[in-house]
Design a protein that fits this description.
The chain is mainly beta. It has three domains: 30-146, Immunoglobulins (Immunoglobulin-like, Sandwich); 152-267, OB fold (Dihydrolipoamide Acetyltransferase, E2P) (Beta Barrel), CATH 2.40.50; 272-386, OB fold (Dihydrolipoamide Acetyltransferase, E2P) (Beta Barrel). Helix content is 10%, strand content 40%. The strands form six sheets. Strands 19, 20, 21, 22, 23, 24, 25 and 26 form an eight-stranded mixed β-sheet that branches.
Length: 388
Amino acid sequence: MNYKYLALAFIAFSAFGCGPWNKAPTNEGLAYFEVTFTDGTNIGTIDNPVEKADIYTFYVNIAAMDYNKELMSDYNGKVEIKPLAATLESYSRVTLTNGRYDNLEVKLRYAADEEVISVHEVEEVQEEFSTSYRPTGKVGVSPTIYLPHISIQQIQGTHNNNASNGFLSRFDRRNLTIGQWMVVTAVLEGGFYVHQLGAEEFGGMYVYSHSTPFVDDGNDIKALEVGTILEELNASVQEFFGFTEMSFPTYTLARTPEGRPLIDESRIPEIKDITQFVISGNNVEIEKYEAELVKIDSGIDGRTDIDIVIDDFDEHEQSYIDYSQYPLMVNGNPIMTSTLSTAPTFNPVANKGQKVKSLTGILKQHRASRPSTWIIVPRDIKDIELAK
């Protein structure tokens, strides 16, 4: 081997590898934002969250930091403020001066569980008729804010007022923990219904478990029973064609001193009569009892002027074939029902035109359902009482 040429090759390779064109990249300028809370700002802890409020107010300090983790005192740029899931009720864009913005007030609405405040650098883009702001990818995130668990009343009662889209919850697509005690009001295939104890309105929720829910009763595994008390429920809020539900749940049962599930059917609330709201078409009032036990009754308050009739329908229509949905008329105003899965012995086709004394069941909503978006699903055949 010619070691002379090998040495020359090594020297040439070393020179190439150390040339200016192969230097390690140098990071300069803005690296990230340091986001801290002003002294005295309460952000809570896991065991002691911030006190419950409609709007939460926090004060943050923002600092532009370079790659040496030092303040960029010559930085003057715009940033956007974004919460993790809550709605921002304060300034969404501010300008840092000399690398800082101190004591910025941040107000959050529809906040629950854990939140953070993130800061994103944006650059101004001038367009023909407007100015827009484009993120650069430089961000900063605050420490975690610990907020109280939410209630069913907040999820159901905090919604837009658009009846045509189903009164969508402001907490749609949020994974949340309900911290108030609940009672199971009905168990159907694929899920169950709960009611927040003590809630007069907006207290019901459908929990879509995707299969028959089972629990550990202390001795064995058994199906979840009506009247079971839940201490806590975690799931994701979803709007299913206007029907607010929670999916993929985990839950904690209240238990007796012996470790058995606490079951108390007396905690199931009184059935809500919505007859008058159906007659008047008052969707705002009906919405208050979504996912709760309701009834329509021809004899409410001793009245004799209310007619509830199973309306004529086409049993060959796809909605009836697929979902067994058919209309009832309450003094000429429609509401839907579906009896196939829970009261299969009832024959709707044979009972067209039949007067109904009362119908009890779970109140559901489907914004594509016609002629009414509201649907009462009886728990069993005993919930259907025909007029004699």
